[in-house]
Amino acid sequence: MQEYRVYLLDRDDKIVWSSWIEAADVETAVVRVRNDYTCPCEIWDGARRVAVIGAQTADLA
Length: 61
Description:
By secondary structure, the protein is of the alpha+beta class. It has one helix at 26-36; strands at 2-9, 15-23, 41-45, 48-53, 58-60. It has one domain (2-60).
């Protein structure tokens, strides 16, 4: 399992909260974040942003 940092963003794309999650890979992390949060989020693996999740989309970085 890999640890990813999830940043929850406000309307101005400013970080309002963060959390750690564990997932087997980036795609699994995206599914988990989309199921757990309704706001825009970014998923980071260390210093690398690996996904941006908006209200309706998830783009792998």
